[in-house]
Structures are given as structure tokens and as C-alpha cells.
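hey so i finally got around to running the thing on that chain from the lab meeting. sorry it took forever, my laptop kept dying and i had to restart like 3 times. anyway pasting the input first so we r on the same page abt which one it is
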Amino acid sequence: MIVSDSGDGLTRTLDGDAGEAVWRCLGRRGMLFSECESFDFVRLAPGAVLDGRGRSDIEEAWFVLRGEAEFVEDGQDPLLAREGELVFCAHASAGHWRNVGDSPLEMLFLALMPASVSLRLPTRTPSD
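ok and heres what got predicted. didnt touch it at all, straight out
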């Protein structure tokens, strides 16, 4: 089990003001009995950016709970994601999220192993 406590119960992950971004792990690999790497909650202050470097080895699903976000990938037009929308990022995608709204942006983040990896793994099932 992973436990973190930074006063409000959320793990701070970006440099700068304490209010720019928070990240909280809701579950990790072995806890989920799947090819899921992690399931996380992310909050960004207005104008804050979440850099995605170093995450190219996974596939991602981002669900916008509150606010408006822009996903920017080199050489691509920015993708606007609003409350209630789901964005999938394929294996080897690179880019960053930016809060483009006037209020905090809240998202759920699901990180998955790419099919090229998970298809090679033995079947995993919970035990009794």
C-alpha cells in the first residue's frame, strides 16, 4: 500500500508554488490485478503545466473531471479537453497538459502497459 501525507493528503509533484499541482495515487500495479501501471488523481492550478516527459513507455487515458485542459504534442495542433471528456494517448506519445481555464483542473489518469508488453505476460488473476 502506498500512503502519502502532505497536509491535505495529496502528493505535490511540480516545482514552484505548492498550489500549482497535486497528484494522488489511487492504485498501483499489484493492487489492481491487471496490466494497469497506476490510477491517479491530478489537479492543476490555472495556467499550470504538467510535463509528460519520461512516460513514453505507457499508454494513457485521461478523464477530465472539472475544468478545461489543452494537450500539446510537438508538431500537432493542441487538443482541447473539457469536463466529462476522455483522452487516450497511445504508446510513445509525448506532450504536456496545460490548464487553460480560470479554475483548478481536475483529472483522473490511468496508465497502462502497451499491448506489445502485456500480451507477453502470463495471465494474472486474483487468488482466493
